[in-house]
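@channel sequence for tomorrow's demo:
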Amino acid sequence: MGERSVDQASLKMLKKAKQEGIETAWDRYEQQLPQCGFGLLGICCRNCNMGPCRIEPFGDGPTEGICGATADTIAARNLLRMIAAGAAAHSDHGRDIVTTLYETASGETQGYEIKDEGKLRALAVEFGIPEEGRSKEDVARDLAREAMEEFGMVKGTLHFLNRAPEKRRQLWERVGISPRGIDREIVEVMHRTHMGVDNDYVNLTLHGVRTALSDGWGGSMFATEFSDVLFGTPEPVKGESNLGVLKEDDVNIVVHGHEPVLSDMIVQVAKEEGMLAAAREKGASSINVCGMCCTGNEMLMRHGVPVAGNFLQQELAVVTGAVEAMVVDVQCIMPALTQVAKCYHTKLISTSPKARFPEMDHVPFSERTALDTARKIVMMAVDNFPNRKKDLVQIPDEKMEYMAGFSVEAIIKALGGSLDPLLGAIKSGQIKGIAAIVGCNNPKIPHDYGHLTLTRELIKNDVLVVQTGCAAIACAKTGLLLPEAAEQAGPGLSAVCKAIGIPPVLHMGSCVDISRILVTAAAIANALGVDMSDLPAAGAAPEWMSEKAVSIGSYVVGSGIFTVLGTVPPVLGGKKFTELLTKGAQDVLGAAFAVETDPVKAAALILDHIAAKRKGLGVEG
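structure tokens (generated this afternoon):
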């Protein structure tokens, strides 16, 4: 059982699940073995009804599909569709936040307010919208309308591209991959990958990068920036993480998914005296709201709400027998939750019209009735408390404090108001470079092992690590997000962390907040007068599994940052296409992918890359 996870709380719940006959993601993964070899190599095609076609990878079978598509074409088209789905997921999240801001400014929502007026006005200036002497509501409406236009886009290219260094923007323009609009690029992916359209794997790849850039520098960036305006820009905050944050005497509500519009209201409502009194009447001491996955990240970095776990722990939270309600919105929610919950008393409540789950209770959520809906959901959890099966309750002891909330603004504040101290530390060699470790969990890799091993290898070699998503939660659970973790870092990084009181691993938010990392990298590059591809920086996704991760990796590489993947993408059947992604892209974009399943070896790749970039900048120390 130990090989399934390195997290003790998860191992305890896996043992409990086995004893109680509960099937989890790990069991279902093992039932799928051996997985389809054609699918793993990315050389099966279902893009028309002449097939499905598959290419024989060993050369003694078909080398083309019925239409004549080669392995490289098929693999490229398949990856492009993954990018499109991932970009659509993040960008639709961004669109919902933009819409919520517009409706809030128009007085059409319930419970929301503009919490960071300073950021609102700064964004307005960035977009050329008059703000002086105008109400924040008027400014917000104009800004939101301007943002809405960037989804369909008819006026040129995305405005946030101006944040990138001029050399990077010139490269995008020269190569022809400056994104023209978020929805437009996604739609074009679907057109290009239709039977009989684009069959040039190089041309397909370039459009895939353009689509991913529309996510990183468009949809995700809107989600981040406008969430800050609505809910407040994160500042360092402490809380607790892992399954041990669930409380035996409380009504436990787990919010799971990605969008903060509902979970923010649930956190607010759960503190109301009327709700607390109702919980006490049912025999509970209080109401305990916990996060899961990126909704957890959104809540912990703004409110210090405890986070119960990351992606592969969602079923295990239910297995504790102590969760009254798990409330979900969109993305990374396992349909299997409904089968697990049948063995316990947990109510599963879906809320989004985009994400219905058979056998879940559905409470339609609207920003216009947000508080009323949140109260209904919290009361459903309170009413469910007496239904606990006490003999099935087992909450692991494991929990750990964390420090999160390192927005770009918070990092600059911690540095004394500018990036100069960080630049000085990089130039002096105290900090060798910066690595962004992001992404999901995947049962192909022992749970959290990739994230933790890679992080520890890098910080002990004086590389500052920034994180989002499930990777950040993995490190939160082991104390790596605490200033005390500086003791595990190399002498240079440790000294910097101790001097300003920060951890060697900075939690920057949910998966859409990788846009914060882009903004930080762009600001450093601008300060040094170089392109982002010249920085001693790298990206990594040690345990990725989702299509969003494919889009993320593509826009990180497209922005000029070397990226290491810890699970193998479905491309290896297209040999020329694979070579383009891992080598040829370097010549075009100044960065490329590497695939390394061993996190220790992945760390070595990143350290070698950072050393080479330091040499290029003339700072070899």
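heads up for whoever presents: The chain has four domains: 2-54, 71-231, 243-392, 415-617.
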